[in-house]
Amino acid sequence: MFIMSKPWERFFYLLTYLSQGSSYLSPRAYAILHRMHHAFSDTDKDPHSPHHTKNVFTMMWETKNIYNAVLNRKRAIENRFERNYPEWRLIEKLGDSWISRVGWGLLYLSFYVLAYIYLDMHWAFFFLLPIHFLMGPIHGAIVNWSGHKYGYQNFDNDDKSKNSLIFDFLMMGELFQNNHHKRPNSINFGSKWFEIDPTYPVIKLLSRLKIIEIRKKH
Where does the Fatty acid desaturase domain lie (predicted)? Predict the structure, then answer.
């Protein structure tokens, strides 16, 4: 969708690690799985289709196994998927280490404890910790499960991708899956007038600030 200079790429790569924390996902592995998903959408080769797994948990588990195989280079990847992705092996190694994941988890737990003691946080908020620990996989599961199961279609993409409008604002535009599969290189996941992609104006702002360069305007 867009390109950026190497310094900005490193900046956002590091920001990805800091923001994802315990649920860090490798941009390289994520990019490859995403390309596979588009190429094989809702077929038995799709790395995360809800139509070839029993439930959302088995889908997440199978996706995890494929992700780890791609991450550790233990799975043969087609040449068309192995290209044009950011890579910083130091951060990948750090982000995927158990020391990092447990460390971030302890940091989250400390924040909740301090909020409970000093900010009068209700004890029920501690039940959010598992979601906090696994935010990346949970976000992916919602998008890939709901985005290919529930909602409506603007386009016939020869798959089961859907637009889940009522939940989309929580996923920052990513639940316009039917639109995205029709126009995968569009920076705006919305298509109809009432479909608002909240990430689109952010991308436009980054372009105006010359931080990124949009490759193809839509």
Answer: 23-190
